[in-house]
Write a structure and sequence with these properties.
Elements (H helix, E strand, L loop, with lengths): L1 H46 L13 H15 L13 E8 L3 H16 L7 E6 L7 H8 L4 E4 L2 H6 L6 E6 L4 E7 L3 H8 L33
């Protein structure tokens, strides 16, 4: 009789242990499924970020004033000026100081500005820089004579920028942002400045030799302020 009781007890313990093991396995599988889903979602967020909050909306006030200053400057050019080509879409490029691709893009924008009529009058750049330090991107854009505004991140946040570089197209007649692209290049801008969408070959300028990344942060001033 005692042997039967011990056998039943052993079977009960084994059943409980098996149940616990099954629950642990199911819990682990659940966590794996959740983790895979999160990784997939993160991958999709990186490769295909959601559209910025600024789409189909007006520009933030400070950025709107900055763009207006540039477009008004274009209106003062002589009617027969070879560089006067004011397009319906004003392109705004968001960059960040610590973004490697942004440095290469700024050099290509500088190269495009040298050969595309009206490029400088139809393009502006927002550079996000954290803290009180010199902006290498700002210095590069100054050398290329491309209008830009340095910002601590408020404009990018209000615009719903989730990554850099990002480009938006602002339609002045509709007074709203009508297009955007993450990444992008100078051809995206050229296609909106030149009505027929001509693809213009651009020879990029070297950015690392003339403007090496600063090793230490130093104080600097904004290129434009409200």
């Amino acid at each position: 009789m005692r042997g039967v009781q011990l056998l039943l007890y052993a079977l009960l313990v084994l059943a409980v242990a098996t149940g616990i093991a099954v629950l642990c396995v199911l819990s682990a599988l659940r966590e794996i499924v959740i983790l895979r889903g999160e990784v997939t979602a993160l991958s999709q967020l990186i490769t295909s970020p959601p559209e910025p909050a600024i789409m189909n909306s007006k520009l933030p006030q400070r950025l709107q004033s900055f763009v207006a200053e540039i477009t008004n400057r274009a209106d003062t050019l002589p009617a027969d000026a070879s560089s006067r080509t004011k397009s319906a879409i004003h392109c705004i490029v968001f960059m960040s100081e610590d973004c490697g691709p942004c440095r290469d893009l700024s050099a290509r924008l500088g190269a495009a500005a040298e050969v595309i009529p009206g490029f400088r009058e139809n393009v502006s750049v927002v550079v996000t820089i954290r803290g009180d330090r010199t902006s290498t991107l700002g210095n590069m854009l100054n050398d290329y004579n491309i209008s830009h505004i340095q910002d601590s991140g408020d404009i990018a946040k209000l615009s719903g920028v989730r990554g850099t570089p990002m480009m938006i197209g602002f339609d002045a007649e509709q007074d709203m942002v009508t297009e955007y692209t993450y990444g992008g290049d100078e051809q995206w801008i050229i296609a909106r400045i030149i009505p027929n969408g001509l693809q213009v070959p651009i020879t990029g300028r070297s950015s690392s030799a003339e403007h090496p990344a600063p090793e230490t942060a130093t104080s600097g001033s904004a290129a434009w302020s409200a």
